[in-house]
């Protein structure tokens, strides 16, 4: 994205945000509450429209090629969006149908993605009967069903216990390595950052740092990544 700005009723929330992700890159969009992470996701997914700046997915401009650009991205929203009374299979089949897959193709891909998420045994279970961590994994499997180039996750570990949180962070890092999909993971939790991740720090609607952990520590003359974020966000990340 390039020079993206957005306001709610005249109140600026994003100011000239620019960054680019490469295939297979895991980028953490790190910012305290209210930094503008969800707003940024809402613009990429076109829940809101933007007038200033440009967003491209796989080279396609989101305004001019909306349908094709959306076919190239998978999204896990902050609030769960699975149908609780349908089975995992039915939730995934419906998503597959929306992306033009035949039932057989959707079934094959669902079983492949669920196996990757170590959830193959849950295909016929109702979502209501799954734990919070399992539901999140199903949402990720659904987000990857149509083989997008970009996977967006907005604070996907909210409400999960520590073990489920760690498991999910590990799973998505592995998927990113194995499938070459670019991942944009929004969070305010420093401990979800892996040493090799790229970190884009968003503070009050602006990107105030972008790079590897080592670069960001050097830029801020900090001894630890926690210290660096405190300096960049004036202590709002904790
Ligand atoms: N629909 C809206 N109308 C007006 N202001 C909004 C709206 N949604 C968000 N905001 C404001 O925009 C700013 C950015 O909010 P946003 O939800 O994008 O931040 P965030 O980084 O995702 O925070 P969180 O971690 O709490 O989800 C906040 O000041 C918020 O109050």
From TrEMBL:
SMART domains: AAA (SM00382). It holds the Pfam family ABC_tran. GO terms for molecular function: ATP binding; ATP hydrolysis activity. PROSITE patterns: ABC_TRANSPORTER_1, ABC_TRANSPORTER_2. Residues 1-229 form the ABC transporter domain. It comes from the Bacteria. Keywords: ATP-binding, Nodulation, Nucleotide-binding, Transport. Transmembrane segments: none annotated. Belongs to the ABC transporter superfamily. This is ABC transporter domain-containing protein. It comes from Litchfieldella anticariensis (strain DSM 16096 / CECT 5854 / CIP 108499 / LMG 22089 / FP35) (Halomonas anticariensis).
